[in-house]
């Protein structure tokens, strides 16, 4: 393994901090910016550009497209260039928690960035004359993960958007004061992967990019059939699902097409609490397969719902695993396609 | 209450909204960079993108999200969306034809609101999924 600095403790300290002070949108929600945006998008819905058309649909007037949310608070080209120049020279771009976090991640070698998830909730549409103000919180920093793009950390930032009437904003506005009196209009969670790119291969074409940048030690793919697809789809959503007979309610795992008790083919699933105990385990030393780290503790976990499941044990040395050890599920995103449950010891009585 | 285009009673699980298809161009990316304020050169500067190990410029994730969002809004009516989340599964590339898929997965009434849940995806011509997500819209009721 190559040496790299580990800033886990400092990064964990930043979780829960404001990413920076609230930011005020440079402009009120306005027709010109909306028109540029919908034209770029090829969106011809008249409700975004014509008051008459919007009123004909029962609205008070023009609204902004919901997914344009982030565009209102973007800092613009010049500021982007300055931040990039600062980062390239190894200086923090500023003194906010986000700046400190990015500097730490760069120092760990995780210099590339890719957006992985965006989750927006809307309390109401933005309308002409709204002045948007946003407050951001660093919500989560993951441990170091191996992904298809390279090794790195997932960062989740929550942005709370509020709005006030632009007419109430003076010439020397205080964004914190404005945020405090603003009406909440939307929330956005944005998850990125800051990563060290895997060695870049010679690209033969656009479509092969991801495949070629995947390191050789990729976790093997499970063979997914219709009977078991629910389990892996659930894992991707960080849910541990257990198959349940729809006729007699018996839980079963591993998945089967029919109930062993009443023979019904009808089934649904329940979401497990994720708590369980080590029922049995092995520690694999040999043979070693690419994509795994050895020695590899693997547990047979008895879930509190009663079914048992085989999964990796994490956060524990093979020599420390004990039968009856309480564990809690965690989901590991190995790459863009594969997320699997693993179990980590939990303190007795902890939930 | 937003546009009354689709009524709660008229929707059933499995229904699909009209698909929207769009062939992504470099001009789209330039236009979107300016309109959105996202000036990451990977999306508009071919020379820098190649120097960064990419085969060409590639689409903004939020462009894909907006494209799919426009298809959702066209289906459920504007100003009705309450939640919209996506996973950026794959990068998008110039000359790819991107097609939206919007399908009803559930109907429910919560806090006096008539909600429909949607499975939403953006796929290219080869069937590769670029975005995988969910959306929820509050619909008007006829009663």
Short summary:
The complex is a heterodimer of chains A (351) and B (143). Chain A is α+β, with helices and mostly antiparallel strands. Chain A contains 8 helices and 14 strands.
Record the SSE blueprint.
The complex is a heterodimer of chains A (351) and B (143).
Chain A: H1 8-14, E1 23-24, H2 31-41, H3 51-56, H4 77-88, H5 97-107, E2 112-122, E3 130-141, E4 145-146, E5 150-165, H6 175-181, E6 183-197, H7 209-213, H8 229-236, E7 241-245, E8 251-252, E9 267-271, E10 275-284, E11 296-303, E12 308-313, E13 326-333, E14 339-345
Chain B: E1 21-23, H1 26-36, H2 46-51, H3 61-76, E2 81-88, E3 97-110, E4 113-123, E5 129-139
Antiparallel strand pairs in B: 1-3, 2-5, 3-4, 4-5
Provide the residue-averaged pLDDT of chain B: 95
| Cα end-to-end separation of chain B | 15 Å
Q: Name the CATH homologous superfamily of chain B.
A: Hotdog Thioesterase
Number of strands of chain B: 5
Oligomer: heterodimer
Helical percent range of chain A?
A: 10-25%
Beta-strand share of residues of chain B: 25-35%
Give the overall shape of chain A.
Answer: globular
- Using only C-alpha atoms, the radius of gyration of chain B works out to 17 Å
Q: Per the principal axes of the C-alpha atoms, what is the gross shape of chain B? A: elongated
Overall pLDDT confidence of chain A: 88
Total beta strand runs of chain A: 14
- N-to-C SSE series of chain B? EHHHEEEE
Termini of chain A, distance in Å? 35 Å
CATH topology term of chain B: Thiol Ester Dehydrase, Chain A
Helix run count of chain A? 8
Which radius of gyration of chain A do the C-alpha atoms yield? 25 Å
Give the fraction of residues assigned to helices of chain B.
Answer: 10-25%
Report the structural category of chain A.
alpha+beta
């Amino acid at each position: 393994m190559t040496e790299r600095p580990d800033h886990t403790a400092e990064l964990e300290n930043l979780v829960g901090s404001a990413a920076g002070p609230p930011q005020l949108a440079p402009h009120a929600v306005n027709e010109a910016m909306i028109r540029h945006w919908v034209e770029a998008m090829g969106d011809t819905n008249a409700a975004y550009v014509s008051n008459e058309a919007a009123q004909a649909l029962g609205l008070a007037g023009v609204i902004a497209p919901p997914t344009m949310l982030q565009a209102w608070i973007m800092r613009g080209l010049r500021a982007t260039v300055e931040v990039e120049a600062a980062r390239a020279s190894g200086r923090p771009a500023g003194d906010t928690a986000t700046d400190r976090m990015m500097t730490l991640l760069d120092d760990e070698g995780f210099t590339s960035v890719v957006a992985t998830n965006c989750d927006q909730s809307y309390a109401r549409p933005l309308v002409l004359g709204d002045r948007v103000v946003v407050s951001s919180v660093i919500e989560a920093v993951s441990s170091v993960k191996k992904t298809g793009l390279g090794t790195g950390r997932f960062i989740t930032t929550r942005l709370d958007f509020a709005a006030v009437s632009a007419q109430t904003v003076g010439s020397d506005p205080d964004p914190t004061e404005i945020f405090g009196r603003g009406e909440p209009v939307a929330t956005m969670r944005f998850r990125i992967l800051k990563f060290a790119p895997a060695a870049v291969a010679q690209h033969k074409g656009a479509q092969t990019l991801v495949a070629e940048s995947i390191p050789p030690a990729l976790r093997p793919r499970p063979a997914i059939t219709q009977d078991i697809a629910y389990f892996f789809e659930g894992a991707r959503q960080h849910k541990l699902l257990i198959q349940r007979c729809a006729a007699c309610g018996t839980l079963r795992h591993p998945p089967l097409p029919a109930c062993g008790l009443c023979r019904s083919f009808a089934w649904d699933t329940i979401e497990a609490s994720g708590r369980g105990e080590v029922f049995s385990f092995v520690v694999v030393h040999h043979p070693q397969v690419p994509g795994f780290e050895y020695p590899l503790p693997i547990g047979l976990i008895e879930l509190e719902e009663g079914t048992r499941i085989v999964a990796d044990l994490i956060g524990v040395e093979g020599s420390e695993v004990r039968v009856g050890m309480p564990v809690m599920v965690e989901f590991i995103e190995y790459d863009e396609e594969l997320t699997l449950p693993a179990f980590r010891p939990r303190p007795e009585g902890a939930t | 209450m937003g546009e009354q285009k689709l009524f709660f009673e008229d929707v059933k699980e499995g229904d699909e909204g009209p698909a929207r298809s769009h062939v992504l161009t470099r001009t789209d990316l330039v236009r979107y960079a300016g309109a959105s304020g996202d000036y990451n050169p990977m999306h508009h500067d071919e020379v820098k993108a190649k120097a960064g190990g990419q085969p060409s410029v590639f689409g903004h994730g939020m462009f894909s999200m907006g494209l799919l969002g426009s298809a959702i809004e066209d289906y459920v009516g504007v100003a009705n969306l309450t939640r919209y989340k996506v996973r950026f599964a794959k990068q998008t590339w110039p000359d790819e034809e991107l097609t939206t898929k919007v399908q009803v997965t559930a109907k429910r009434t919560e806090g006096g609101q008539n909600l429909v849940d949607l499975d939403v995806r953006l796929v290219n011509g080869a069937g590769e999924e670029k975005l995988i997500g969910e959306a929820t819209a509050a619909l008007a009721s006829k009663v």
